[in-house]
Protein: Enoyl reductase (ER) domain-containing protein
Amino acid sequence: MTLPADGVEIRLASRPEGWPTSENFTITRAAVPAVGAGQVLVRNLVMSVDPYMRGRMNDTKSYIPPFEVGTALEGGAVGEVIASESPDLAVGDVVLHGLGWREFAVVDAGNAVKVDPGLAGGAYGVFLGVLGMPGLTAYAGLLKAADFREGDVVFVSGAAGAVGSLVGQIAKLRGAAKVIGSAGSAEKVAHLKDDLGFDEAFNYKDGPVLEQLEKAAPEGIDVYFDNVAGEHLEAALSVANQGARFALCGAISQYNEKNEVVAPRNLFNAITKGMNLRGFIVAEYGDLKEQFFAEVGGWLAEGKLVARETVVEGLENAPTAFIDLMRGANTGKMLVKI
Amino acid sequence: MTLPADGVEIRLASRPEGWPTSENFTITRAAVPAVGAGQVLVRNLVMSVDPYMRGRMNDTKSYIPPFEVGTALEGGAVGEVIASESPDLAVGDVVLHGLGWREFAVVDAGNAVKVDPGLAGGAYGVFLGVLGMPGLTAYAGLLKAADFREGDVVFVSGAAGAVGSLVGQIAKLRGAAKVIGSAGSAEKVAHLKDDLGFDEAFNYKDGPVLEQLEKAAPEGIDVYFDNVAGEHLEAALSVANQGARFALCGAISQYNEKNEVVAPRNLFNAITKGMNLRGFIVAEYGDLKEQFFAEVGGWLAEGKLVARETVVEGLENAPTAFIDLMRGANTGKMLVKI
Structure:
């Protein structure tokens, strides 16, 4: 097999100010780098767009370095090894790695994880979703950061997204008394209740979050899994029961906001209610992976978990997929098929 | 001994809007109630004014019910039993109880704790300070809520107050790498460094808290004990190290604020830094009392802890003492000698 000389890749053209637009991205062809010792050449099959990528598009110091303007973006992807200079991976292996946003990636073998194509039945997107980073985020965030306990009333925002939809389902499978979700459309609300088994769900665009949450949870909430921040977090602080536990996972209401953030204005509730607020990123919980694969993989195999995907076709549409993700166009995990 | 027919008591005249004034209090004489079965009559010797009392002056639902307008205020006090209808307490016993703000209190024996006058050498204020509620607040808040660990860099706001001054000293005694305090005057800053052994201290009125904190803690902070909220909390979130732990204990910058609270605007740091924020009130940690008395009592007996008091003479000056407390006039525990 002749190796490709070049391939499509997507670069950051400029840093978005506020909401990202297509002008922040460059779709171009670039030479495929040489495969060095210990590396493999991967033909990407599917890639992930995730909300956290928005943060990397800013020039701010954070837990991972910012993307660089003029160079290819990065992110989770699954592809097939088409050349190998590593004894650990062979041509034909399917691997999960961190160099998405491009047709061909040269990856250090140590940064590529071989996945079992049998487990997914060829639908590799699960390794970027329910059995991947969003799945572990939901699992570890709920069980560790929020210290979920059987009998809890659980509220999750962004509940129709990749992480939120799993948080709600895992809470139910682990014995939550009640699971409440918020989402941004009537269709998503129906999906939460009809397909995912949420007890209550509401469209945050229908009215103040606090009013809708109070109605959905007259008994208060014990756990809040926050993907949104802002008004959602304030409502959850108001409605929280004594000793409530919050997992702070995301703040999508703020990622594209140019105005100054003013919330939460009622954090004092955390004192009077003896609450715990735990911020986290998934990397912290790597040691939970084995337990996660066993439990969540088991539920998935038994058909107890619904893992909806929104799949966009074509690498050239990845910027649009990302922009749409920011606006909540997806239900479940947003993927780009390459 | 003839029992008193009446005595001075201080009532809430009206709920303060913003900063409390003397007009919010009524100083009056009232009949001493009859001592019922299981009760004792106590002549109060010393009483406490505490920041949390401000919250009870508002008509808002919280962990304790609000004070009622027209009735006597309540709060920690130590006094001598002068009549007893309880087999558990005898005339002459010295007891700690919750009915301060009055000369004579009729207390259910079950709500009065006999204290050892020998321990305090007759200075009963310690039972309202270092060995009382503020002491346990500092001890449990630092060790449990903030999960303090040897080698931590610790920042405490309101550091010259009853709680803050103990937090810093306990942290040093327990092996903190560095203890930083903020306070509201040059005298207090000197007290923190010269008398209490803080490594760094600054006057928050001298300039932006963030700038001063960054200078005091170029290595970042691992623990923040928050008595103040607002700008202090935002600065601490900015300067926090990965995995930092915050104990949220008070918000004195906000208690008398009529304008809407706008902070913290940078809570997103809690996510990227994997931080834990734990709100608490001391009642939650009652099971720690025995350990607290043993360890803190030991340090006190060995002269390893400085427990400064600001003592105001005369029950009629209790409203002024409280108002002054709100403005930070005290160094260490604020007490009213009756």
